[in-house]
Design a protein that fits this description.
The model has no long low-confidence stretch (mean pLDDT 96). The protein folds into 2 domains: 2-160, Rossmann fold; 164-282, N-(1-d-carboxylethyl)-l-norvaline Dehydrogenase, domain 2 (Orthogonal Bundle), CATH 1.10.1040. The protein has helices spanning 12-21, 33-37, 50-54, 67-75, 79-82, 95-107, 121-126, 137-147, 162-190, 195-202, 210-221, 231-247, 253-267, 278-282, and strands at residues 2-6, 25-29, 45-46, 59-62, 86-89, 111-114, 117-118, 130-134, 155-158. α9 (162-190) packs across α12 (231-247) and α12 (231-247) packs antiparallel against α13 (253-267). It contains 14 helices and 9 strands. The protein is of the alpha/beta class and 288 residues long. The radius of gyration is 20 Å and the shape is globular.
Length: 288
């Protein structure tokens, strides 16, 4: 299939490579052109404008940083270029944003569904992402086979907006679990207790989450480089989660504290580091 892919950042690049490896032809566009050009050797066609990319694809995949970026890109696509094409929005955005983009794309003569993903670059490369589809059942059935190039079992969540909400619910756990684990590990370290002993007990309990073990080496070494999910993206998502929770009448008090920690991480210059860098704020190194 001919695919237009807009947004070749941390996740976009391995997703494009995955498309190419599974036999699709891909035209890519990224606002920072250098991030797209690295894909030329893999066989991607590098374009200069969103319009140029869209006009080379039967479907259009968005993997952009936020709703504002999607709005900017859509503004650069003429109505006639999108007519008859399907837009699949795969980033993490607000529920209201996804529904608004759906209406905008339909008015431009296109079709729209959402398919946010959960997983890292490693899962992307292996085709093991978790995919959540917000669409009509007809759209889901039409596009399910194509989406399996990214993950083996795309899940149908419901109508447009519901998959966006589902993804935000999962990302809330990312923020909450990481901050909670950072506090607990900090308590252990401050008392001079072995982290191995702590983990051996934790893994036998109902409290254990696999992400604790996955992120433990980063925390112990305080190495947060080469991120799959940087701090600044989690800040954006936490803001979306807080807004969504408020609209649903849910308390967001614990998220306010996490948001403060993340803001301090940004101010400390950790915005482009892995989100586990919040450990640096929760458990700062003792001064000699």
């Amino acid at each position: 299939m001919d695919v237009a892919f807009l947004g070749t950042g941390l996740m976009g690049q391995p997703m494009v490579r995955r498309l190419l490896e599974t036999g699709h032809r891909v035209a890519v566009y990224n606002r920072t052109r250098e991030k797209a050009e690295v894909l030329s050797d893999a066989g991607a066609v590098i374009t200069f404008t969103p319009r140029e990319a869209v006009e080379q694809g039967q479907c259009v995949l968005f993997m952009l940083s936020d709703g504002a970026a999607i709005e900017q890109v859509l503004a650069g696509i003429p109505k006639e270029s999108l007519h008859g094409r399907t837009v699949i929005q795969m980033g993490t955005i607000a529920v209201r944003e996804s529904r608004a983009f759906c209406e905008q794309v339909k008015k431009m003569g296109g079709d729209y569904l959402e398919c946010p993903v959960l997983g890292s670059r490693k899962e992307t490369q292996a085709g093991r992402l978790i995919l959540m589809v917000g669409a009509s059942l007809e759209q889901y059935r039409q596009w399910r086979s194509f989406l399996t190039c990214f993950g083996p079992d795309p899940q149908y969540i419901g109508e447009v907006g519901q998959a966006a909400a589902f993804k935000l619910a999962l990302n809330q756990l990312i923020a909450s679990l990481m901050s909670a684990f950072s506090v607990s590990l900090g308590m252990i370290e401050r008392e001079g207790i072995s982290s191995d002993l702590f983990m051996s007990v934790l893994r036998q309990s109902a409290l254990y989450a696999p992400m604790f073990y996955k992120k433990l080496p980063r925390l112990l070494k305080r190495n947060f480089s080469d991120p799959n999910f940087p701090v600044r993206h989690l800040v954006k998502d936490v803001d979306l989660i807080i807004s969504d929770c408020r609209s649903k009448g849910l308390s967001v008090e614990h998220l306010r504290g996490i948001r403060t920690v993340l803001e301090e991480a940004l101010n400390a210059g950790l915005g482009d580091q892995d989100y586990s860098a919040m450990f640096e704020i929760i458990q700062p190194l003792k001064k000699p």
